């Protein structure tokens, strides 16, 4: 069965970093431009349009492989507008197409998140993210928490561990 790994977290939690790490394997279709550039705007993430319009996902979206890695923060900017992505709806659409979604929610110290959010977007949006993630956790969607600081502490070992718990090539 095809698998869609959705890497997400509050703004400033490191979803660009984890999207880069978890889409680096040759068998994973992911955010290719992140392999060459340090930072790429959220609007250019391959699934960006789907976070706003999940109904546009088709079987062709998943035609290029068996493992897909998508990335979004909560909230995120799309066409210059701050929005809450429709992660649950994307998961439901993937399931309807025979693709198993798995959500990886990034955890990071709330004070670091607040500083990053003020730096990038001008305001702290952590309460929005926490409320949204609670709705995902209360659903039947397969999810895991991944830890930003654990990656910096354990590096390759942590990435290997993530591959094992997510059942995803790394």
Q: Care to describe what's here?
A:
- The protein is α/β, with parallel strands linked by helices and 170 residues long.
- It is built from 7 helices and 7 strands.
- The strands form 2 sheets. A 5-stranded parallel β-sheet has the order 2-3-1-6-7, sandwiched between helices. Strands 4-5 form a two-stranded antiparallel ribbon.
- β4 (76-78) and β5 form a beta hairpin.
- α6 packs across α7.
Short description:
This protein is of the alpha/beta class.
Walk me through the topology.
Blueprint: E1 2-10, H1 15-22, E2 28-29, H2 48-52, E3 67-74, E4 76-78, E5 81-83, H3 87-96, E6 99-107, H4 110-121, H5 126-137, E7 143-147, H6 148-154, H7 156-166
Parallel strand pairs: 1-3, 1-6, 2-3, 6-7
Antiparallel strand pairs: 4-5
Helix pairs in contact: 6-7
**Share of helix, binned:** 25-40%
The count of β-strands is 7
Mean pLDDT: 91
Strand arrangement, major sheet? 2-3-1-6-7
End-to-end gap = 17 Å
Low-confidence stretches: none
Order of helices and strands, N to C?
EHEHEEEHEHHEHH
Shape descriptor: globular
Keywords, please?
170 residues, 23% strand, two-stranded antiparallel ribbon, globular, alpha/beta, 7 helices
